[in-house]
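As a warm-up, study this chain.
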Amino acid sequence: MSVQLWTYLFVFLTFGLYIGIAVWSKAGSTHDFYVAGGGVSPLTNGMATAADWMSAASFISMAGLISFLGRDGTYYLMGWTGGYVLLALLLAPYLRKFGKFTVPAFIGDRYYSHSARLSAVFCAIVVSFVYVCGQMQGAGIVFSRFLEVDITTGVIIGMAIVFFYAVLGGMKGITYTQVAQYCVLIFAYMVPAVFISFMMTGNPIPQLGFGSELTPEYGGGYLLDRLDGVSEDLGFGTYTDGQKSTQDVFFITAALMFGTAGLPHVIIRFFTVPGVHDARRSAGFALIFIAILYTTAPAIAAFSKTNLMNTVNNAEYTDMPSWFTTWERTSLIAFDDKNNDGRIQYVGDPEINELTVNRDIMVLANPEIARLPNWVIALVAAGALAAALSTAAGLLLVISTSISHDLLKRCLAPDITEKQELSYARIAIFIAVLIAGYFGINPPGFVAEVVAFAFGLAAASFFPAIVLGIFYSRMNRQGAVAGMLTGFFFTATYIIYFKFINPEMSNAEHWWFGISPEGIGTMGTILNLVVALLVCRVTTPPPEYVQRIVRHIRLPGE
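Now compare it with the structure written out below.
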């Protein structure tokens, strides 16, 4: 069968599975809708958390960034993995013990203030919208290539599917759907990696193949040595050497770490298990499931970049395989024959280079470039969709709970019934899907870059407020609100200025202290902490009952 037929088959089967699970696990109460009834087992929740966490940025874009940036791209790997460890060890058990199932609810109650709650609602909605746009963009890219529709149509299809099972099942439906999506995405990620690793190095384990010698068919020598040599010869710079400054790498990695620990859609997952001990266990399971993909990504990056350069450079355009022209139709790869010789010059010098490759296609095109069977190519498409839609569903739920529970039920309309609250939550998801779809069609950057902005905003707003709320009983509402808003608006202003108002100035020459927009969230986090602590010291301390709660949640036990 052709790639398209295989893709239709896999998409039909997997989407049918997701919809079937949503129907089976339909939420009948707000408790089911928000936290899946609080009875999910640690293993199940660990798998669902991994799927929620490993978005289109992890599946599609991370290896693509590493393949183009080399060592510089690994800050995504380090930041996201380190951030999850930070969340699992530092925050999750205490938040679960506090007992509030949304970040705005924790901040509102911990800081005994509607102002704090509303500030957190605002930050949660903005962060989630920025993040979900990247997921819709990823879904559109996959549909565009493998179902041969335009990206706009692809985004609309993704919107419709995720809207159906998020609205119907809420967190209960999303949890069990994400378990299925994890199985699909990890299988889809690993199968081509194993195939290509064995073909190129004779070792079927990608993590080991990454450091192995290439087979004679691929020129022999160690993979990374050969990749360094070819990259230098073509003017791209050494693959294993970093081009970014040390301080920028540090700030980006820290922003991704702190942002992970403050992401509302990941934190909410720890409220779906029965108790604190289960939250710790599910965090451990999730880390194992996440590590399988994250330790494979650098290998896929090296394999795909090697195959791409060997295939396209100095090749006759008319002799290019069918995958090249198919991807050309999506406008995600483009050939401009500047010297009219009919050959593709793929080099580092922009004046001479004739090939433009969107980084987000590297994982998706990798099986085609390596000439793997059609069913493997289609499987990767199904896995990418699973990654994008699983995270999109979790983010949409954060938006809906922030609006229906934290904004309406707790602030603006406390007298609404549970049935009305559930209806408002579903309406909020509908509106959020439409807005996210628009930005998925008109994205501000690569998938992983868009997601990095969300992490920076989460780091600068939520992370200090949550950490201080758990570990510093003297922190009061004035300090928390001042810190959150200062960190958030500082980070947002920096990103908007350099990415949208003056993108031509977005380079190390003009950045403050050489910090890129992807890393400015760390500076926002520091600013948040400083402002929060200063304001806290010159205003009245929190009530004694709040300080007792803070001390209680740090005690061992349930």
